């Protein structure tokens, strides 16, 4: 997919982090901060409503392989323990909770790498299923430890402890990990944000987010068991409007806000909390899968559009694309404007003597050489056979004549090596028409004028440039080049 084809490079999120030391310390710091934030949502004598640390640790271990060392695991363990101890937990409780956390993280990392065969990231809808299965494995591992320690820590049964721990961990993993696994590099993210904010239509693109905010407020005001579904339509709109990373982030923020607000406003009930947490975070996969489908669809459409607009042999614009883009450029481009018609001299003889493979090699080489003589905004197209056309604006007639001559010399001065290994000399004739870009002349008229100049070049011996101008202050025709083909 391009968006993040292989995100297991350690530089894919935090470029400055290099080596086990920096990666391990970063992992420990993030686990510590995530634990502190989670503890703030912890209800008295119960698990936290929203626990960030485990998913953060799993995401960092997957995205930054240098952190997955003994040192990294030790520093992360210290992060878990220190966050619990400084917030008032006694050592035994801190140790048992940390054990459950580490077992779950280890399980989800192993399951994810096995399911995805080491490919890190979310590139297609099937990847969401792989992630969900890995999250279930990590949650089950934590649940087994949590069920065993539940009677010790919370004076409750093993089964209810397992269920509560499993649902809580699964909800946290499935909500947080998509954000970490789709996160672009920080410099790239900053560039995207700046580019997005400077786009004239960015305010209209904020409408899905505004609707999401309104739906969240409405859910809070209306309340009731169905309120958790209020943001779903807005999240689906976000999915078709934004990238997978942005969709995953908005889905996580929405789910976390709803979970924390509902957990703190309702009396504690184990069954109700299990249902709430599972219900809230089962919303997550839907928008992400829709976003992935939209990204895949957009990528496919862009590929098909590119293929439809490109000449299959040379890679330059085909006739239809050239004509359409030329019309657009004539409406908005600078003045004066020049159109060049290029024809390879005696090209039929190349095909007849050396075969069509040699002719194809000549066309590919010539198109590449022409492209290197042009600016980024100049338009080059293959109109058919050995004929090429160029549209250039913002140059005087003298400058266009010089550009055409440079193109001719670039092709003439270096022979083309064909598949047989023979270095084949190639020459070309070029007709150039120059006119004011005032909306009165169409691309068809300019091509006709440049084609007439091309036929003059052919009739006068080939391997030359003939320029004809429709400008009022440069009416004389000009001719450049070396004589006929030898």
From TrEMBL:
CDD domains: GGDEF. GO terms for biological process: cell adhesion involved in single-species biofilm formation; negative regulation of bacterial-type flagellum-dependent cell motility. One of its GO terms (cellular component) is plasma membrane. One of its GO terms (molecular function) is diguanylate cyclase activity. The keyword rRNA-binding does not apply. The chain crosses the membrane at residues 21-40, 96-115, 127-150, 162-183, 204-222, 234-262, 274-294. It is found in: Cell inner membrane. InterPro entries: Diguanylate_Cyclase, GGDEF_dom, Nucleotide_cyclase, Rev_trsase/Diguanyl_cyclase. Its main location: membrane. Its cofactor is Mg(2+). Its EC number is 2.7.7.65. This is diguanylate cyclase. It comes from Metapseudomonas furukawaii.
């Amino acid at each position: 997919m391009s968006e993040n084809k292989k995100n297991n490079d350690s530089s894919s999120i935090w470029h400055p982090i290099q080596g086990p030391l920096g990666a391990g310390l970063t992992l420990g710091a993030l686990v510590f901060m995530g634990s502190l934030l989670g503890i703030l949502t912890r209800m008295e004598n119960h698990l936290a409503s929203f626990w960030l640390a485990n998913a953060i640790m799993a995401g960092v271990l997957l995205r930054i392989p240098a952190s997955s060392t003994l040192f990294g695991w030790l520093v992360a363990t210290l992060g878990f323990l220190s966050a619990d101890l400084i917030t008032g937990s006694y050592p035994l409780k801190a140790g048992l909770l940390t054990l459950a956390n580490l077992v779950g993280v280890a399980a989800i990392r192993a399951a994810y790498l096995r399911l995805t065969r080491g490919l890190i990231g979310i590139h297609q809808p099937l990847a969401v299923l792989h992630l969900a299965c890995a999250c279930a494995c990590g949650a089950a591992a934590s649940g087994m430890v949590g069920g065993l320690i539940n009677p010790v820590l919370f004076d409750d049964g093993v089964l209810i402890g397992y269920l509560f721990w499993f649902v809580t961990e699964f909800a946290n993993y499935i909500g947080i990990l998509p954000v970490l696994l789709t996160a672009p590099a920080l410099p790239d993210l900053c560039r995207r944000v700046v580019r997005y904010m400077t786009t004239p239509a960015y305010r209209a693109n904020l409408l899905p987010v505004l609707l999401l905010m309104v739906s969240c407020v409405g859910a809070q005001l209306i309340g009731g068991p169905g309120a958790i579904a209020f943001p779903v339509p807005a999240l689906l709109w976000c999915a078709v409007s934004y990238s997978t990373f942005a969709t995953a982030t908005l889905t996580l923020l929405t789910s976390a806000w709803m979970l924390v607000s509902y957990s703190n406003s309702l009396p504690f009930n184990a069954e109700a909390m299990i249902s709430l947490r599972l219900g809230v975070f089962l919303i997550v996969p839907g928008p992400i899968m829709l976003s992935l489908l939209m990204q895949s669809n957009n990528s496919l459409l862009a590929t098909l559009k590119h293929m439809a607009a490109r000449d299959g042999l040379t890679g330059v614009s085909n006739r239809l694309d050239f004509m359409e883009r030329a019309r657009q450029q004539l409406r908005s481009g600078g003045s004066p404007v020049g159109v060049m018609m290029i024809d390879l001299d005696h090209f039929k003889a190349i095909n007849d003597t050396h075969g069509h493979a040699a002719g194809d090699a000549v066309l590919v080489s010539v198109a590449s050489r022409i492209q290197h003589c042009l600016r980024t905004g100049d338009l080059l197209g293959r109109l058919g056979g050995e004929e090429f056309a160029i549209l250039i604006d913002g140059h005087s007639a003298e400058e266009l004549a010089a550009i055409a001559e440079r193109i001719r010399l670039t092709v003439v001065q270096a022979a083309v090596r064909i598949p047989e290994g023979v270095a084949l000399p190639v020459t070309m004739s070029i007709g150039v028409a120059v006119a004011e870009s005032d909306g009165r002349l169409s691309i068809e008229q300019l091509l006709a004028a440049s084609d007439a100049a091309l036929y003059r070049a052919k009739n006068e011996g080939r391997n030359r440039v003939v320029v004809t101008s429709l400008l009022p202050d440069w009416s004389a025709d000009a001719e450049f080049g070396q004589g006929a083909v030898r």
